[in-house]
């Protein structure tokens, strides 16, 4: 009887994991190929990077301000965590890459002939 309960719980957890994985794959598909590639290279999704740096939209000024603050706060010399500081750096790099991708897409849209 206990085995059945564990078996059902495991099957339910497995179904939830498949659903979450499918939802994540769909979200990556909507984000665009370049953005998905950047997520794979950096190891962070755009949403994770935004959460780490506490930014809701891609504003270069806000990103830089929050990055500098979190980098200083997590400096090992002031009792911070090197691990957290490295997460802040990776998040900043990921958001910078996303800003670069958006700028490139905007340039391409501007260069398209108007008919």
Task: Give an overview of the whole structure.
The protein has 115 residues and is mainly α. The protein contains five helices and no strands. The longest helix has 30 residues, at 2-31.
For the secondary structure, the number of strands is 0
Question: What is the general shape?
Answer: flat
Topology pattern, helix = H, strand = E: HHHHH
| Global Rg | 20 Å
Q: How many H/I helical runs?
A: 5
Strand content: under 5%
Mean pLDDT: 84
Low-confidence stretches: none
How would you sum up the major sheet?
A: none
* Structural class designation: mainly alpha
Question: Could you estimate the helical fraction of the residues in percent?
Answer: over 70%
Spatial gap, N to C terminus: 71 Å
List keywords for this structure.
mainly alpha, 115 residues, flat, 5 helices
